[in-house]
Amino acid sequence: MSNIYANSYAIVFVFLCLGVLLPVGALTLGRWLRPHVPSEAKETTYESGNNPFHDSRIQFQVRYYLFALLFVIFDVETVFFYPWAVVYDQLGLFAFVEMVLFITLLALGLIYAWKKKVLRWM
Amino acid sequence: MMEQWLESAPSWSNIALFFGLGALLLAVVLAFVTYSILAERKVMGFMQGRIGPNQVGGRFGLLQTVADVLKLLLKEDTIPKAADRPLYVLAPVIAFAPSFMVLAVVPFTDAFRFADLGVGLLYYIAVSGLTIVGVITGGWASNNKYALLGGMRAAAQMISYEIPLVMSALGVVLLAGSMNLVDIVNAQQDVWFLFAQPLAFLIFLIAAVAELNRTPFDLPEAESELVAGFHVEYSGFRWAFFMLAEYVYMFAMAALITVLFLGGWHPVAFLGWIPGAVWFALKFCAVVFVFIWFRATFPRVRADQLMEFAWKVLLPLSLANIVLTAVVKAWFF
Amino acid sequence: MSGTDIAFFLLALAAIAGAVMMLQLTNVVHMVLSLVMTFLAIAGLYVLLSAEFVAVVQVLIYSGAITIIMLFAIMLTRHHADDKERQTTGGVGHKAAAAFAVLAFGLAVYAGIRTLDFGADGSALPADNAKAIGQWLYSYYTIPFEIVSVLLLVALIGAIVLAKKDGKGAEDE
């Protein structure tokens, strides 16, 4: 590991610590400052003034899941795009043809989803 | 300055030094958030023919946000009985920590920058995706109908716009030949990528606004239909951390747009005598102003328009942009 | 012990702790979040191995995308926070047998890797991960790469076909 690499990830770790310490610290500090007078009414779930009824953990429509599926697949494709973009200079035409094939297949999938009305949100 | 520290052998004193510098950046970011909220209220007031805050801290309301934060700190913290307690407490931390972590790779000037990662851009995108998990967790843990619905909507929106965001940034990576943000800035010495990649810039800007959950894409927080979205049940400082995460992301996103498309710290033409930090700050403020301007100008879009726009317009356009950029690069450079 | 070793042990501990929690917890959302902890710890281990591109992909795909699809799948089902029917954990005999099995597995793995030669260490890897991966992937492994794109297309179409059948049923109701 080079020094720059090691130091850079040490910084990432330090930022993670700071990002966790700030909320934890501020909330602990706030505990001594803020009042704490719990009551039955305060602890009920908010439902625009009505008394909360039945379970809130409802079953969601399948379209949420479909969009998540599309997201996973396209996210995986972007992972292939990035190394390609970085070395495009060195590889030239061959890499271009490869990627055009890749994008065509990707676009086919998107068109299929479009035609099947998966992309409709209603 | 930073370069020399990065090249020194890693040691505990280095980590302590980075901790100090990171804390300094955190202070700067918190100050930015404080005054960007004031600026937002002032600019929106101006655009809507109002005055905006003008009572606390002199004629310009300079201490208004400070007072708001103190109020939040002193507010009672309630956790609903029905909530899932451990996750309810954990969710603001999961949402906030990544928003600060992404700043580790953003180079502000040649001297003032932190981590120098070879995969900088992808790191930013990967880490910022973790916030979505925090948002769903917060919505689910609240055990509230509005919160869960808001959390799921926010997640659906953020994942849909992440794809065009990533794909449009690819045009920049193609031209720069690197994912390292410092290399990307240096590749813009002569021509900013705003001019070399206008389509990518537009897609990126729109997707960025949607990722930030700001108007016109602020459906997850639609007050009129969802009360407040995923953080209905949160109060006091726990709520403040969700809001803080949002504004820190605004800081990060404005900085990222400056780095990717506006040439970072590079000066305009012959004005090289003005230091890079000033240039960065100017471009950065311009981006933040555009975000505020959008908020004052556009009405909120409908849920179906929002989702279909990402998949049917932005995604095909960004794919076309990649092919176009590759063609231009292969035949004209 | 160097900083890298300390980091390795902490990350390994976090990865295992996440996995154990994922098995032990009874609430599905809690389980998914402990899985996120494991994913992130593994990303950290990749960083220690100088494989920063793989680490970032791990965070992007696993901690980001896969976690979200799991959460969405949970929201798709009927899940209640309060239906915690605890499975019986078995008697003393079961527990002793399990402990023995874990111990034996640990010893076997230790014996296996103690003298193992892993070849060159990570410092010999190219500094610019993404570039090296790109060069290999797009010049030597062209065919696998194109097959991956077909695989992704098939996965996409398959997912739509399966999910749309449910969707049709819902529309008819």
Biggest interface, residues from each chain: A-B, 72 and 85 residues
Tell me, what's the shape of chain C?
Answer: extended
Note the gap between the termini of chain B.
35 Å
Spans of chain C of at least 5 consecutive residues whose pLDDT stays below 50 are 169-173
Count of β-strands of chain C:
0
Span of the ends, CA to CA of chain C: 65 Å
Q: What is the average of the pLDDT values of chain B?
A: 86
Radius of gyration of chain B: 20 Å
CATH fold type of the domain at 1-78 in chain C: Four Helix Bundle (Hemerythrin (Met), subunit A)
Structural class of chain B: mainly alpha
**What is the assigned CATH homologous superfamily of the domain at 1-78 in chain C?**
NADH-ubiquinone/plastoquinone oxidoreductase chain 6, subunit NuoJ
The sequence of SSEs of chain B as H and E is: HHHHHHHHHHHHHH
SS element count, helices of chain B: 14
Mean pLDDT of chain C: 82
- SS field, number of helical segments of chain C: 6
Biggest sheet architecture of chain B: none
User: Biggest β-sheet of chain C: count, sense, barrel?
Assistant: none
Strand percentage of chain C: under 5%
- Series of H and E elements of chain C: HHHHHH
The CATH class of the domain at 1-78 in chain C is identified as Mainly Alpha
User: Which percent bin holds the helix content of chain C?
Assistant: over 70%
